[in-house]
Amino acid sequence: MNIATKRWLPHTVAAVCLLVLLYPLVWLLATSLKPADEVVTSLDLMPSHLEWSNYTTALDGVSGVTVTRLLGNTLLIAGGAVLGNVLSCSLAAYAFARLRFRMSKVMFAFMVATLMLPHHVVLIPQYIIFNRLGLVDSFWPLILPKFLATEAFFVFLIVQFMRGLPRELEESARIDGCGPFRAYWSITLPLARPALITTAIFTFIWTWNDFFTQMIYLFAPEKFTITLALRSFVDQSSTSAYGPMFAMSVISVLPIVLFFLVFQRYLVQGMATSGLKG
């Protein structure tokens, strides 16, 4: 194998893999512009003509709720979840990584063990609690648990990152009279930015795409998220609305793509540095 082949072969393989990965998005975009009769009958990637009315119908929303309201509900839930996870998980991670207290190792092991606990196991007890509190059919069951450090994966991720930070910085701050919370807020938290941004990105994407949990807690159409609206769109109009359904899918995917493109370099940095030490 000559030098030119060795140079271009990895790039060619990477380009082919990229095309394979991007094909579903291209197919989704093309299908959202197809007429209704071509969605299920034609195997061609490109439509015979562009059906822009699919997006007009999609923007009207479902059950009298516009796409703007649906996106606003989803953004509110995702934003609250991001804020809750970043604050609570970083606080819990700082306690495990920096503070010394009794049974800390046992509690950390127990916390890590919850990663193997299926989400459906705790769903019924959580629903009973929120139902007795009168919070069902509201956004609180989807946001409030995020402020209680219930995501063990993110706590573990941030702990591993914080353990790799030099302790000398906090020790110097304590000599100057800095307490644990001030050291967390002013020293450790800014240094842990890659891990925090990684937590924010994954939380935003997972919450935005969540369907099952939102279906359990949200009943009123005006409180629906974009994922619930997609399901309601199918139930409401059956197979004749495949075009608008795919158009709404494109609208729902755009915020995730933009969010990822803006913060992807922080995501790579956080995943590359978290867990290397500690």
TrEMBL record:
Principal subcellular localisation of the protein: membrane
Pfam families reported in the protein's UniProt record: BPD_transp_1
Highest taxon, organism lineage: Bacteria
Subcellular location(s) per record: Cell membrane
Residue ranges constituting the ABC transmembrane type-1 domain according to the UniProt record: 71-263
Regions crossing the membrane: 12-30, 75-96, 108-130, 142-162, 183-208, 241-263
Keywords from the UniProt entry: Cell membrane, Membrane, Transmembrane, Transmembrane helix, Transport
Topology relative to the membrane: Multi-pass membrane protein
Family membership noted in the UniProt record: Belongs to the binding-protein-dependent transport system permease family.
Protein name: Carbohydrate ABC transporter permease
Organism expressing this protein natively: Streptomyces javensis
